[in-house]
Backbone:
């Protein structure tokens, strides 16, 4: 009788384990179930020895969380499977581009655990974790022709709607933690708005709830089905949902589709450190003992050389660096976390001129110097925050990314143009006989971005760029906004057939560096399962997106 009862309980226990794996629960619930079963059996005076495979210890073993993040994601997938030509076509594309998948995984690795945790806390389908693959290919600085920014590609208006702060210092649309919270808020709202239909919610995330709602209304009026596949939606949206379902299907069974996904450890990598003041990002990097580029990659929401003086006062940092960072930060009171200069106002100078010269804002100057208006007098002294290092050192700040974008060599003759009052991208493009989209991309903009007088643009004339086309292998539809080298540490598990040469080619690093980083003997073969540490140039990894 005991064996019969335990066999009946085992499937329930396994289901519970799968749910607990996804949510970091313990095996207590399963153990309690087994314990109650034992009590029931004892009450019936059945007392044979309990087999090992029925014990609470074994239940706990079955409930151990997966070691690989992809296993955890698979366990929580919940969207219905569909067989549609669009899904098959996208799946075929993904399956045929192993290099693209490798680059996406490399970029996603620092953020993946954070996103998975956020999705699990809301009990949402794990396919949502993969939405940034479709939106931005997990590029933290992604900026689309539609003015969408960050991993989750928020446009300015929707970002403000979901409390993503956007100003000169900071853009919450690129803040990994803040934008993930906002994206999940938006998706939950859309799910509820469309009666729990996740596919309609995803379509609305792409094209707006009004677009999808009107399509549903039209179909209802005509007596037609109102599921996603039956709606007359914009072309981009009709392709958007199949892309997510395709990448989800590939993650579900990569071996079947002839690809591999580099393992990602199922453990947190980044965590939030709360500060109480503005801090120079170069100082933050120094205190955390990481590179300045890494600070920006983990905290891409910061536009300038320092955090926003009005907050948020927090940073995402690698967990292993937190203790040292906090210990060293304690030696720097808030007034020492930013450097200051004193400026004596000259005849004819305005707050705007001074702010531009010091790469800051009028609001900052007024706040720091307790100024009520915009009037200043010659001879007065202003206290001004300044960067600890040369501005060129902050290579992933918004300003330096723009400089890198504008300095990329292209075909044609380079012309520099200063925007005048009344100019628009359209009028300038027409004057120089180039495409508006091309002109915007050359200058790190979207076609609808406003132009401010005095801004400098780069134009490539005679390049045949009346209308540049985004490369066919770029499903996210944007170009990378900078080209400078940015190194990021990643872990790699050696696979069967790997060698130092093949790994170096795959990640575009030298064999000598692989040997040095991992203290290897280059005369010995690598063993499957062996763990390596690599420091890769994330921009070179994303060269072909």
Residues:
């Amino acid at each position: 009788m005991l064996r019969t009862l335990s066999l009946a309980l085992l499937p329930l226990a396994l289901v519970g384990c799968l749910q607990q794996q996804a949510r970091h629960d313990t095996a207590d619930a399963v153990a309690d179930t087994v314990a109650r079963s034992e009590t029931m059996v004892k009450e019936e005076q059945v007392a044979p020895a309990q087999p090992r495979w029925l014990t609470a210890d074994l239940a706990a073993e079955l409930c151990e969380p997966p070691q690989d993040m992809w296993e955890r994601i698979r366990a929580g997938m919940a969207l219905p499977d569909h067989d549609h030509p669009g899904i098959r076509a996208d799946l075929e594309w993904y399956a045929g581009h192993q290099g693209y998948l490798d680059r996406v995984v490399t970029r996603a690795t620092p953020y993946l655990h954070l996103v998975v945790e956020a999705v699990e806390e809301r009990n949402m389908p794990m396919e949502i974790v993969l939405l940034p693959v479709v939106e931005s290919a997990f590029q933290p600085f992604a900026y689309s022709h539609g003015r969408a920014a960050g991993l989750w590609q928020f446009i300015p208006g929707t970002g403000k709607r979901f409390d993503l702060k956007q100003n000169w210092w900071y853009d919450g649309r690129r803040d990994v933690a803040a934008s993930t919270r906002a994206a999940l808020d938006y998706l939950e709202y859309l799910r509820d708005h469309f009666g729990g239909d996740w596919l309609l919610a995803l379509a609305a995330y792409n094209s707006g709830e009004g677009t999808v709602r009107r399509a549903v209304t039209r179909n209802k009026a005509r007596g037609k089905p109102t599921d996603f596949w039956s709606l007359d939606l914009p072309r981009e949206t009709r392709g958007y949902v199949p892309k997510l379902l395709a990448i989800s299907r590939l993650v579900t069974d990569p071996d079947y589709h002839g690809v591999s996904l580099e393992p990602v450890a199922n453990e947190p990598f980044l965590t939030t450190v709360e500060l109480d003041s503005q801090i120079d990002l170069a100082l933050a990097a120094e205190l955390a003992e990481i590179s300045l580029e890494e600070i920006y990659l983990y905290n891409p929401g910061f536009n300038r050389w320092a955090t926003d003086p009005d907050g948020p006062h927090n940073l995402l940092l690698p967990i292993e660096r937190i203790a040292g960072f906090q210990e060293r930060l304690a030696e720097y009171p808030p007034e020492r976390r930013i450097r200051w200069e004193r400026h004596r106002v000259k005849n004819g100078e305005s707050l705007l001129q001074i702010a531009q010269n010091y790469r800051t804002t009028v609001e900052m100057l007024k706040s720091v110097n307790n100024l009520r208006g915009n009037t200043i007098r010659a001879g007065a002294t202003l206290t001004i925050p300044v960067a600890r290092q040369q501005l060129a050192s902050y290579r992933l700040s918004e300003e330096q990314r723009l400089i890198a974008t504008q300095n990329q060599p292209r075909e044609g003759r380079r012309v520099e143009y200063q925007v005048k009052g009344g100019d628009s991208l359209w009028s300038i493009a027409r004057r120089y006989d180039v495409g508006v989209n091309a002109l915007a991309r050359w200058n790190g903009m979207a076609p609808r971005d406003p132009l401010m007088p005095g801004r400098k643009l780069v134009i490539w004339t005679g390049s045949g760029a009346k209308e540049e086309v985004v490369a066919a292998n770029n499903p996210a539809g944007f170009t990378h906004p900078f080209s400078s080298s940015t190194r990021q540490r990643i872990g790699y598990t050696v696979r069967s057939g790997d060698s130092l040469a093949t790994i170096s080619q795959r990640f575009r690093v030298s064999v000598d560096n692989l040997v040095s980083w991992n203290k290897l003997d280059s005369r010995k073969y690598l063993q499957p399962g062996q763990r390596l540490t690599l420091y890769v140039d994330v921009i070179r990894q994303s060269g072909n997106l």
